[in-house]
Amino acid sequence: MKKEEQLQNTINNINVLNDLLSEKLCLLDAKTMNIPYSDEVKKLFNTVIILSEKIDDEIQTVKGA
Known about the structure:
mainly alpha; 83% helix; elongated
């Protein structure tokens, strides 16, 4: 397998994982909507969202977009 193919496969896998992360975060958010959030839970949600956005940015950088 060529390096370009390996890189594309890695990017695709990261995209899938990132999409799953976002999906699970939305499901968790919906399930916990009626539960009062502690500051720790809010920080966790925000951290995961930021991580997901950074992953997207890095993927775009690697792709050269």
